[in-house]
Amino acid sequence: MLQQAPSTVDQVILEVKAAIREARYAPGQRLIEPELAREFGVSRGSVREALRRLAAEGLVEWERFRGASIIRMSRRQVTDFLELRELLEGFGAASAAARLDADGRRDLAALEQTPGAHSMFPSQYDAYNNEFHDLVLRLSGNRELSGVLNQTRLPIFRLQFNKILLLPDQIRQSRADHTRIVEAILNEDPRGAETAMRDHIRHSAACILGAPRNCFA
C-alpha cells in the first residue's frame, strides 16, 4: 500500500513502470483507474494524473471508450526506437572502451564468467543480457546516458519482444555479438566497440522486424 503524500503520483508511476519491467503488465493490458486506486491505496485523481504522465512518456495510450492501456508498439515505433538505441548504445560502448579502468575490466570479466552469460535457458540469459547492457552504459562514464535510455520505450520493447529475442538462434547470435563488444572494450578500441554494439542492435532489429504482422500493434 502506498502512503498518501505529495509524491503519491510519482509513486504510482514508479509502481506501474516496475510492473511493466517485471512483466506483471502485458502490452495492450487495460489499466483500470478504480482497480489501481485500490491496489495502491491512493485516490483515483492520483491514478489519473499518473496515467496522463505515463502517456506523455509513451508507455501508456488512451483510447476512446476503453481508457488507458499499456502501449503495444507498432512496426514503425519499433524501427524508430531501435535506430535511437543503436545510436545511444553505440556511443556508450565507444565511451566505455575509451574510459576503461581496472575496476571496469574486473566488472566486465566477472559478468562474462557468470553462468547466465553462457546459458541457453531464456530466463538466465535474459537476466545476464540486461545486466550486460546496463554495465556497458555504466562503464561509459556518462551519467545521463542510462537515464535517457530509461525514458525510452525499452521496458515495453523487452516485454513485447523478449520471447522472440530469446529463441535459441537469437541467443547464439547475441552471445557472439557480446563477445565482439567485450573484446573491443577490453582492447580499449572505441571505434571497434561502437561498431560491434551497433551491429548487435541491428541484428536484434532484423530479428524483430522479420516477425509476423500480428506481433505488432
Task: Outline the structure in words.
The protein is mainly alpha-helical. The chain folds into two domains: 8-70, Orthogonal Bundle (Arc Repressor Mutant, subunit A), CATH 1.10.10; 75-215, GntR ligand-binding domain-like (Four Helix Bundle (Hemerythrin (Met), subunit A), Up-down Bundle), CATH 1.20.120. Helix content is 68%, strand content 5%. The chain has ten helices and three strands; from the N terminus they run αβααββααααααα. The chain has helices at residues 8-21, 33-40, 44-56, 75-99, 102-112, 122-139, 143-150, 154-165, 168-186, 190-209; strands spanning 30-31, 60-63, 67-70. The protein has a three-stranded antiparallel β-sheet. α1 (8-21) crosses α3. The longest helix has 25 residues, at 75-99. The mean pLDDT is 92.
* Helix and strand run: HEHHEEHHHHHHH
Question: How many β-strand stretches?
Answer: 3
Mean pLDDT: 92
Distance between the termini: 33 Å
Summed up, the domain count is 2
Which parts are unreliable, with pLDDT below 50 for 5 consecutive residues or more?
none
Strand order of the largest sheet: 1-3-2
* Main pleated sheet: 3 strands, antiparallel
Strand content: under 5%
User: What CATH architecture label of the largest domain applies?
Assistant: Up-down Bundle
The level 1 CATH classification of the largest domain is Mainly Alpha
Class by SSE composition: mainly alpha
Shape verdict:
globular
Please give the radius of gyration in angstroms.
19 Å
Question: What is the element layout, followed by pairings?
Answer:
Layout: H1 8-21, E1 30-31, H2 33-40, H3 44-56, E2 60-63, E3 67-70, H4 75-99, H5 102-112, H6 122-139, H7 143-150, H8 154-165, H9 168-186, H10 190-209
Antiparallel strand pairs: 1-3, 2-3
